[in-house]
Every structure is written in C-alpha cells, then in structure tokens.
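Entry details:
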Amino acid sequence: MLGDEASESELRERLTEIVRATPPLMQVLLVARHLRLPDWLVFSGAVYQPVLNHLTGRPLDFGIKDYDLGYFDASDLSYEAEDEVIRQVRAAFDEPLRRMVEVRNQARVYLWFEAKFGEPYTPLSCTPQALERFASATFAVGVRLESDHRLHIVAPFGLADLFALRLRPNPRRRTVGFARTAADVRRRWPEVVVDDQP
C-alpha cells in the first residue's frame, strides 16, 4: 500500500496533487485565503475524503457533505462574533459551496463541545491543535493555501494511515464516537480497513 511504502514527504506531495485536482476544494481554499481569517485551515472530510476517493477510483468529491473551515480568534469568544464571521464567509461563496462551507472559531469550541458530544474538551491554543482531538488519526489532516500558492499541510499523526486506507482511533484521545464514525466511513468506502487499536 502506498501509505506503508512511501515517505512522509512523498505522501505530502501526493496529497498536494490530489487537493489541487479537486476543484471545489481548491475554490474553498482560494476564497478562504482571500478572507484572511486568523490561523485558518480547511480540514476533516474535505481533505481526507478526496484521498480516499482517489485511491479507490471514485470521483474526487464523492461523499463530501461539507467543507470544514476552522479559524482561531481568542479576542472575542462571543457567539455574535463567530456568527459575523459565518455570515462573511457565507457571502463570499456561491451555491452550492455557500451552504456546504461550515466555519467555526476553534477558540470557542470548548464552550459547546461537551454539551453537544458528551465529552470534555479543553480550550485550544491554535487551529492545528484541533486536529489532535479528532476521533481518528486518519482524519487529522488540514490544509491552507498560502499567498505564494504553496499548500501548507498539517498532519500531526502523519499521512501513512490515510494513504494505506487504514482507519485507527486517535492515539492521544479516545473518543466515544470512533466505532460509529468508522462504520460510516466503511459504508461509503468499503475498501478502508478499520484497526481499532491506536
């Protein structure tokens, strides 16, 4: 499998090629760069799902329900401040991306996470740190398009599992939702192998 044989830098090059070949994702990255949100990343399914699709011969945007756009602004943790950014981002896109881009201030996730998901969530200090809390290490991939058009990649657990079509729980944070999430991924990509050991 590609993930087990290639170096991390080779996998980052492959990820860059796949992202650049996915027009809706590139559109989200271009608009997000223009908006200049603080410490922003596009992450989660918007990034790992095109890789699964590429590796399994599906259209690159198959299964993508939304584009998660995270930013970090601890200067104002009010709902109203985040809602203003949500409206700004929504106005920057045409349909269907207008309804698909979901933006959240990662600095305030801890305020609502436990009530919504039933798990404690300590405050973050930056957007990339959010990736370390995902249910699976395989999902923990974020990208940002820099001003020089270079793709900045954040992958705290590396990319080997993703390119090997291997789904494992987060080794640093066990979540109650891993089994449910893994089953959902396997319904859409049955080629993925689930290893429930971190």
Q: What stands out?
A: The longest strand covers residues 67-71.
